[in-house]
Specification:
The complex is a heterodimer. Chain A is α/β, with parallel strands linked by helices. Chain A is built from six helices and seven strands; from the N terminus they run H-E-H-E-H-E-H-E-H-E-E-E-H. In chain A, strand 6 and strand 7 form a beta hairpin. In chain B, a hairpin with a 4-residue loop joins strand 1 and strand 2. Classes of the chains: A alpha/beta, B alpha+beta.
């Protein structure tokens, strides 16, 4: 009785992810860590040798939700070539269930974190997001050096432009 | 000579462009508040800076309809206006976004639904946003009695009212009303990026 349902669900998940070969994490099991400003700097340093993309987003930010699937897809596409996509939600810590729900719905195989600062100036200061808004994307090269920053300015960031920046560094 | 003239002209143009950018994007504490004229409000009237000359302090808040962060602050703005009105403070909300949800008719509906006790203006030209250098919603510019900028930034330090520790705008109002300098003259405004065309 249960088995066909699981097979169906797995099939639907694969379809949604563009028929990738890798199994996807179950919805309830999305890994979501906590990270502060220094922690994030250490994480980028830890990934030296790989290209790192940081996607700062929040459930309250419409353009972020539009961009997220594109950056998440880059992990699927370029992970084996040396890309690590890290997502950092600037939601309130109490909003964790909604963050998890969105991540699960996005089938995100990225490394995912939630800011501990709450939605206020402290979060943007801690992560160095000077214009005070999201989405905000940064791309680091294999030496851990920041190569590109994409600011939204209230509009959606061109996902193709991010992809080009990543591919250039791989 | 012709080259010289050309270069002089080019440099003058550059200087003018830089000056214009400076005044538009980098409003500083102590600067004269950019004026505004005949901006339509949800009340159907046209509003100008001069209309508020009797207000001791004027709070210009860039906000909008669609942004969850801006919405989270609506009740706080209503409470501030209510509390500080008798002290000569006037709050004016301005929206310069032009997406369908942020246009005048939805603004009227939102103002009515929430019971805004302050004017809510719509500047589709976005000039006010450029003049003040507003980046996000909500973004606060507190103008003192001489209509100089006394505080720029966030309303407070947390979108969640139950988690607020620092009420930057409230503290700035109290300080200016007492003839003192705000404890924080400038904070980082955060929220939804204003969608400039």
């Amino acid at each position: 009785m249960i088995r066909p349902a699981i097979v169906l669900l797995a099939g639907a998940a694969l379809l949604a992810a563009g028929c990738t070969a890798k199994p996807l994490p179950p919805a309830s099991n999305v890994a979501l860590g906590k990270i502060d400003g220094p922690g994030l700097a250490a994480l980028v340093a830890k990934h030296r040798g790989r290209v790192v993309l940081l996607d700062f987003w929040a459930t309250w930010c419409g353009p972020c939700l539009e961009l997220f699937p594109h950056t998440a897809a880059l992990q699927q596409r370029f992970g084996e070539r040396g890309l690590t996509v890290v997502t950092i939600s600037l939601d309130d810590p109490d909003n964790e269930p909604a963050v998890r729900k969105f991540l699960a719905g996005s089938m995100a195989t990225t490394e995912n974190f939630l800011s501990p600062y709450g939605v206020g100036p402290a979060a943007f200061t801690a992560f160095g997001i000077d214009d005070g808004t999201l989405p905000h994307v940064r791309v680091y090269d294999r030496q851990g050096k920041l190569q590109r920053t994409f600011h939204s300015g209230g509009k959606s960031i061109d996902a193709k432009e991010i992809e080009r920046a990543v591919e250039k560094l791989l | 000579m012709a080259y010289g003239t050309k270069w002089t002209f080019a440099l003058m143009t550059l200087a003018l462009v830089c000056a214009a950018r400076g005044s538009a994007g980098e409003l500083k504490i102590g600067d004269a508040a950019p004026s505004f004229q005949d901006i339509i409000g949800v009340d159907g009237n046209r509003h100008s800076l001069a209309d508020y000359k009797d207000a001791k302090l004027l709070v210009v808040v860039f906000t909008c309809n669609h942004c969850p962060v801006a919405k989270a602050y609506e009740d706080r703005l209503i409470a501030l206006q209510k509390q500080y009105e008798s002290k000569g403070v006037q709050l004016v909300a301005v929206n310069v976004n032009t997406i369908p949800d942020d246009q005048l008719e939805p603004m009227k509906a939102r103002a009515k639904e929430k019971g805004f006790n302050f004017p809510y203006l719509y500047d589709a030209s976005q000039k006010m946003g450029h003049d003040y250098g507003a980046l996000v919603t909500p973004h606060v510019f507190l103008l003192d009695q001489d209509r100089k900028v006394g505080y720029i930034g966030a309303v407070d330090d947390n979108m969640r009212p139950d988690k607020v520790k620092d009420s930057y705008l409230r503290d700035a109002l109290d300080a200016l009303l007492a003839g003192a300098k705000p404890p924080h003259e400038q904070t980082k405004a955060i929220g939804c990026g204003i969608r400039y065309e």
